[in-house]
């Protein structure tokens, strides 16, 4: 009988399956269903600073000429407090309803407001906190180093406010990803989730309008994550990695663990197939472990990371190599 238990950010999990921050985790009922289907932890739907700002702007712009400064302050405070209250209540109710860890999530673009929100999540009972960090670099005068420092500053300030573990969910848009992750680790990140799947634009040729591209990930997207999990695990072996994006079956989970991930975060496949898909994924993971006589996750985690390979170029190679036959 194989043992799927693991730990993540100091939390004991019954298996390495975590459901990522999304609409799948925005209610107690959905979280209960995920627990029953086998999820070991959930990251609740992110509290978005950008969304709060958008709601405030929409309300203010309805009648800007007749709006007093005091009214603008009221709208801002009401909208902000209403959003944070709803998220805090979700954490409190979920903690009472399920036994799996509840990880809060904040989508940060500045460090000004979110330190207090992180503190509120801790008071509400969140077991850990994931900072969902991403800056779209549109200012050509802003250096890459300046943008990276913003990530570090947000993390450092949040860490001063809370004692629960804090992880960071990032994208891959860095000139030196390993160096950036090492900075986050040095500033207290308990884990790094690789990678965030962002909104991407598309163009509708029938309407000549800008629209959204495909919302859900595909299994093909897992390859990028797999490469970097293997590389980062070898360079920073003490860092806990949550692999995310493109993980749609038990084989993908096993591959990420072999590369060095501590857990896997799933989202798109649960949207597409429903919570019950988790049972099949766990069954496939158990079958893989039984096939290779692995009794625990630790018995094979990182077995195929960059540092463990005889030919590490398999991770380093960036271009396709074409071999030609000797035929004329």
Taking the sheet with the most strands, its summary is: 8 strands, parallel, barrel
Secondary-structure element sequence? EEEHEEHHEHEHEHEEEHEHEHHH
What is the strand tally?
13
Total helical elements: 11
The strands making up the biggest β-sheet line up spatially as 3-4-6-7-8-9-12-13
User: What is the averaged pLDDT score?
Assistant: 88
Class inferred from helices and paired strands:
alpha/beta
Low-confidence stretches at least 5 residues in length (pLDDT < 50)? 53-60, 70-76, 323-328
**General shape:** globular
Strand content: 15-25%
Cα distance, first to last residue? Answer: 56 Å
> How much helical structure, as a percent, in the residues?
40-55%
What oligomeric state is this? Answer: single chain
